[in-house]
Amino acid sequence: MSFYLHVVSFFLLECILNPFDFTGTFGQVLECWDRETREVVAVKVVRSTKKYREAAMLEVDVLQFLGKYDRNGSRCVQIRNWLDYRNHICIVFEMLGPSLYDFLRKNNYCPFPVNLVRELGRQLLECVAFMHDKRLVHTDLKPENVLFVSSEYIKIPDYKSHNEGTFYKRLPKSSAIKVIDFGSTASGHQDHKYIVSTRHYRAPEVILGLGWSYPCDIWSVGCILVELCSGEALFQTHENLEHLAMMERVLGPLPQHMLKRVDLHAEKYVRRGRLDWPDGATSRESIKAAMKLPRLQNLVMQHVDHSAGDIIDLLQGLLRHDPANRLTAHEALRHPFFTRYRRF
Fold it and tell me: Where's the Protein kinase domain (predicted)?
């Protein structure tokens, strides 16, 4: 343990002079050199507040638990060690590559080829199935929390680029990915009521206060796959009513039985058994933002030349409004979008 204290304290000093890579609300991630194993590691240094310390300790417990069943670390990021240093929880992880979001951003938000989306989706669903089998719900799946194992990429010609002077796009050399950030993981034994998930990847049952469990992860996976196919987040909003209206625009009406059971906080979004839209919209811009969205199948077909039918059908199963009717991770992995093609 003293070894890690020395490493972390050294790199905390270096970070002040030369900040590395990623700073978030939780704290900072540092690139460090493990002198014992002689490898580069990532150290997540968490802010010294009760909220973030508790989330960090939950993440340690979850990863140590999952590590007992995923000894090869093929699904989730591997934890090396952790320590409490001057009231900061410091978690030492294996070093991974960029997140799916960072790769998209540096690639000018160019969509991924459908074969790559297939392999990324397969691995992501395998991780979700693994967690759900262990009765855990991740609750915060998003492109920022899915990392490529390697940072290496190749450049290929891209004559469809809309960016002047840019005639190439990046493709990762390896499609291997791992899921990170388990600080919001919850038990799947019962339905929960509190708000989870980053806004763009939040399921309708969470917004409506109907209680959530495993299916909220499945919804997030569906949103991620659409984003990989199109290059942009599906639901770009920060308002609940606008978000629900966007869902109806892309996926069809929300079921009556869901709207009738909304909690007290969500009652204002419903009127006479229907979503109070557009009458309840906050502005004309909000109405336009929802109305400009195409139906899911039209959106996918704008970007997918082949396999469009299979991936549309898969996404419609992942993004069913009613969580009881949504595909499970295991059911999704048996979908023709995955089974009809060999791994590449």
Answer: 15-338
pLDDT tens-place values along the chain, 344 residues long: 444 444 444 444 344 333 444 556 778 999 998 888 889 999 999 999 999 999 999 999 999 999 999 888 888 999 999 999 999 999 999 999 999 999 999 999 999 999 999 999 999 999 999 999 999 999 999 999 999 999 999 998 876 655 555 578 899 999 999 999 999 999 988 789 899 999 999 999 999 999 999 999 999 999 999 999 999 999 999 999 999 999 999 999 999 999 999 999 999 999 989 999 999 999 999 999 999 999 999 999 999 877 788 999 999 999 999 999 999 999 999 999 999 876 54
Per the structure, the count of domains in the chain is 2
Same domain, 62 and 115: no
Where residue 53 sits, what CATH number does that domain have?
Answer: 3.30.200.20
- Residue finishing a domain among 37, 64, 94: 94
Strand runs (DSSP E) across 95-199, as ranges?
Answer: 136-137, 146-148, 153-157, 168-172, 177-179, 186-187
How many residues can be counted in the chain?
A: 344
Give all strands (DSSP E) within the chain, no chain letters: 22-24, 27-34, 39-46, 79-85, 88-94, 136-137, 146-148, 153-157, 168-172, 177-179, 186-187, 270-271, 274-275
Q: What is the CATH number of the domain that holds 171?
A: 1.10.510.10
3-state SS class at 212: strand
Let me know if residue 111 belongs to a domain. Answer: yes
At which of 45, 76, 94 does a domain end?
Answer: 94
